[in-house]
Amino acid sequence: MKIVKGQLNFIVLLHVSEIWIHKHMYVAGKTGRSVQILFPLSSLKLTTWQRQLRDHQASMIREGFLDDQFIQLQKLQDESTPDFVIEVITMFFDDSENLLNNMKRALEQSPVDFRQLDAHVHQYKGSSASVGAARVKNVCASFRNFCDTQNLEGCVRCLQQLQHEYSLLKNNLQHLFRLQQQIQAAGGSIPTIE
Questions:
Q1: Are the C-beta atoms of residues 21 and 140 closer than 8 Å to each other?
Q2: How many Å is the maximal CA-CA distance in the chain?
Q3: Is the distance from CB of 186 to CB of 49 less than 8 angstroms?
Q4: Alpha-carbon distance 56 to 191, whole Å?
Q5: Is 20 exposed, middle or buried (0-12, 13-18, 19+ CB in 10 A)?
Q6: What DSSP element (H or E) covers 13?
Q7: pLDDT at residue 60 in the model
Q8: Span 26-36, pLDDT tens digits
Q9: How far apart are the C-alpha atoms of 164 and 31, rounded to whole Å?
Q10: Is the bond preceding 111 in cis, omega lying within 30 degrees of 0?
C-alpha cells in the first residue's frame, strides 16, 4: 500500500473491507493502489454521532416518548441559551422524582386522600405536557380517572406504570443529551428534527 500525501514515520493500519483507518485519519482505497485521505476521523465520528442523534430522537417521537412539544422546546434554545433544553429537562427530572415520591406516600396512607393524590397527578401531567413527555402524560390521564373513581388498585397500577415510563424516558433523554454533548465537544452542530 502506498500513501500519496508525504512521508510518515508511524503508520497504524486497520483493514475493514475497503476502508482503512490511518492514525487519526480516515482513508479509503484498495490494496496495491495509492489511497487518498478523505477527511479526518473526527469528521467521521461527528457525522456518525449526528446521524445517531437524529435517529434516536426520531425513534423517541415514533415510539411516543416525546411529542411536538419537545421539538418546540428545542426551538427555544439558541446560542445565547445553549443549555436551555438540558436545564428544563433537569428540572423536569427533579420534579418527577418529587411527585412520584409524593404519589407513593399518598397511596401508602390509610385512608388514601384521593383528592391530594389527584393534585399530584394533575401537576405531573402538566409538567409532562410542557416538556413533551407524551407517554408519561398519557399515563397521568388514566391515573386521574382512577383517582376520580377512588379505585385504589387502578391507582397503584398507574403509579407503577408511571415509574416505568419515567425511567425509560429519563434513560432515553440522557442518551440523547450525551450524543449532543459529544457533537458539541467535537465542534459540530446539533441537527434539528422538523
A1: no
A2: 81
A3: yes
A4: 12
A5: buried
A6: strand 13-16
A7: 95
A8: 444 444 444 44
A9: 52
A10: yes
